[in-house]
Amino acid sequence: MDKPYRIGMLGKQGAGKGTQCIRLSEVLGIPHISTGDMLRAALREGTDFGKAAGEFMERGELVPDSIIVGVVAERLAQSDALNDGFVLDGFPRTLAQAQMLEDTLAPVGLKVVINLDVSTEVVLDRLSSRRVCVGCGRTYSIHSRPNRNWSCDSCGEEVIQRSDDTKEAIARRLALYDELTAPLIDWYGQLGKLISVFGDGDFDLIHKEIRSAIDSVIG
Ligand code: ADP
Q1: C-alpha–C-alpha distance, residues 8 and 5, integer Å
Q2: What predicted TM-score, i.e. pTM, was given to this entire model?
């Protein structure tokens, strides 16, 4: 087994990255490192990092690289990520972040990047009905609620609608994805690290496809 796993995940907002990353983290026994979850936790705790990031997040803008890059590098240097690897969710989103990541993880960099491919039409519908656990980041929707009221089935914390799942912020986030993040699909393709998986369908089937993609590289 060619460990540590070092897995990246690209895909539009609402493509299902978070849910698939949580499952991968459970079955592979590796940390799920989500920059969105890290930022939201910092915001709730009122740290300097959270305060600096909050206004950008609310508007659906990207948090500047000067704020995010150091925090990610620090997280990747912790022993669980160093020993076992990780699945990275929401990072990189710009070419500068991708370059930083390849440099930090040199000489091999990320081992594989999954592109979870879902149309804009489908993600728009998913985002407007999405609800998220404030504790563990598990996602639900108004069509698929937690078992007890709006308490998370996994950790019991409150399940809410994210403050940036408004119409304006969603439009801005998707536009930024097209402009800044989508070019990374070709970039990782040229490095020979990209595998695309069609992400509109049954959750378990998509999970299996992602597993086979990872096994074909890391197995
Ligand atoms: P989504 O992908 O659905 O927008 P995330 O939970 O991944 O949601 O991120 C929420 C917000 O956190 C983003 O809109 C952005 O403001 C900020 N953010 C997360 N990851 C990054 C990143 N790698 N670079 C810059 N900003 C980020």
Answers
A1: 10
A2: 0.91
